[in-house]
Design goal:
It comes from Geodermatophilus africanus. Keywords: Isomerase, Lyase. Belongs to the class-II fumarase/aspartase family. One of its GO terms (molecular function) is lyase activity. The chain is elongated, with a radius of gyration of 30 Å. The relative contact order is 0.12. Strands 1-2 form a two-stranded antiparallel sheet. A two-stranded antiparallel ribbon has the order 3-4. It is mainly α. The chain folds into 2 domains: 351 residues, Fumarase C, Chain A, domain 2; 58 residues. The chain is built from 20 helices and 4 strands.
Length: 446
């Protein structure tokens, strides 16, 4: 564990792409390849069973040698193959790495790890979405100022804001699920011809895909890196959604705004957010950390997309750059999702504060409605002055402007108050629609 891993390697995704996970994935591919080769008649079943048994117990393998020699080979597969062959003996070594090349095993292992890591990411996104759905439901009609370009605009509701978060989180989950469902196996041999597979390479590729619950392909995707690019895009989009929710929380939790607060649950969360210099401070650390992790994603996505340009049948360098980059991308997006779920679990909206801020911002529309109502009897200039005087009276006496207006007897008070009331349009109906879509996703309906 490193000094910064508590922030940037949080949640299940980090564990899913650890060094141990890398070894488990590589061994899972080699074991599945041996079984697929046995199913297609290329090797004896007994030999495939021996390879599967050896791969099931990595603690019995000389993995230290694999680590020591991985750089010499340019990747860890060649020394791993030798270690497996030594482990099963000369008779059963025929079932090790059948007809494959290093990229077959590495690409497939990388996607297996990505699938496991995204399952952890999805769990945290789902937890965050469920919390947000509860916030949208509870605060469906609570008014707060809408803000555009960081300035107060027209009124909206916290329910609609939360519904927007919910739609983003659910959308990110759907995109990740679509990519994961299409993750393909890699199997082509040295240059993609399957020449070393005894005429059964296509069948073996299909059997390997079935063993690992991946999709099969008509040809290898050695230098056509769409599967990795799709992962990068979906993970980058998820990070963008997480960052948007997190920055909203950070802004709403500002001292001068104070419309939400990160309260947290449990002793650890209660201690979180302190300052080394200012005892009074309580920073929204979970949201801040979610934003920090998410902001690392675009650079990693860019690296993966730039690596798509690969030469001939097998790339020299671009392919290699993907391994640590996708590993880091999965880790940082997983950390961001985990932090966001934590932030939202402890989020406490202050509906009264929101209402007060919205009411203060509503002075303008109400003063305008008052001036408009007085114009027919006083004239434009005098009506403007009367409305301004009412605003001054409200501020001088500490009373709401609505109360000052309500005391007047020279106009239709009810009509003026109605004209100056915050108009949130169809916010409630849209919240209901987002909650219905979320329920359908949760229940697995199309």
């Amino acid at each position: 564990m490193s000094l910064l891993s508590g922030t940037f390697a949080r949640g299940g995704a980090a564990t899913a792409v650890s060094d141990d996970a890398w070894f488990r994935a590589l061994l899972a591919v080699e074991a599945a390849l041996a079984r697929a080769a046995a199913r297609t008649g290329l090797v004896p079943t007994t030999a495939a069973d021996a390879v599967t048994a050896a791969c099931a117990h990595p603690e019995r393998l000389d993995l230290a040698t694999v680590v020591a020699r991985a750089a010499d080979a340019g990747n860890p597969v060649p020394p791993l193959v030798r270690v497996l062959q030594d482990a099963v003996g000369e008779r059963d070594a025929v079932a090790v790495h059948v007809g494959a090349t290093s990229q077959d095993v590495l690409d497939t292992a990388l996607l297996l790890m990505a699938r496991d890591a995204i399952a952890a990411v999805d769990a945290d996104l789902a937890a965050a979405a469920e919390t947000v759905a509860g916030l949208a439901r509870t605060h469906r009609d609570d008014v707060l100022p809408g803000r555009t370009l960081l300035q107060q605009a027209l009124p909206t509701t916290f329910g609609l804001k939360a519904a927007g978060w919910l739609a983003g989180l659910d959308g990110a989950r759907l995109r990740l699920a679509e990519v994961v469902a299409e993750l393909p196996v890699q199997y082509g041999g040295a240059v993609g011809t399957l020449a070393a597979s005894g005429g059964a390479g296509v069948a073996l590729r299909a059997a390997l895909a079935e063993e690992l619950q991946l999709t099969s392909t008509a040809v290898p995707w050695f230098t056509v890196r769409l599967p990795v690019a799709d992962l990068a895009g979906a993970l980058g989009a998820a990070a963008g959604v997480v960052a948007t929710v997190a920055v909203d929380v950070v802004l709403l939790a500002q001292t001068e705004v104070a419309e939400v607060a990160e309260v947290g649950e449990g002793p650890a969360a209660q201690r979180r957010g302190g300052s080394s210099a200012m005892p009074h401070k309580r920073n929204p650390v979970a949201a801040i950390s979610a934003r920090a992790c998410a902001r690392r994603a675009p650079g990693l996505v860019a690296t993966l997309l730039s690596a798509m340009e690969q030469e001939h049948e097998r790339a020299a360098g671009a392919w290699h750059s993907e391994w640590p980059t996708l590993t880091e991308l999965l880790t940082t997006v997983g950390s961001a999702a985990s932090w966001l779920a934590e932030s939202l679990r402890g989020l406490r909206p202050d509906a009264a504060r929101m209402a007060a801020t919205a009411a203060a911002a509503a002075e303008g529309p109400l003063a305008g409605a008052l001036a408009e109502a007085l114009t027919p009897t006083l004239g434009t200039g005098a009506a403007h002055d009367a409305a301004a005087a009412a605003v001054r009276e409200a501020r001088d006496t500490g009373r709401p402007l609505a109360e000052v207006v309500a005391a007047r007897t020279d106009l239709d008070v009810r009509a003026v108050l109605a004209a100056g009331r915050p108009d949130v349009g169809e916010a409630g109906a849209q919240v209901d629609a987002a909650l219905a879509e979320h329920a359908a996703l949760t229940e697995g309906r199309p």
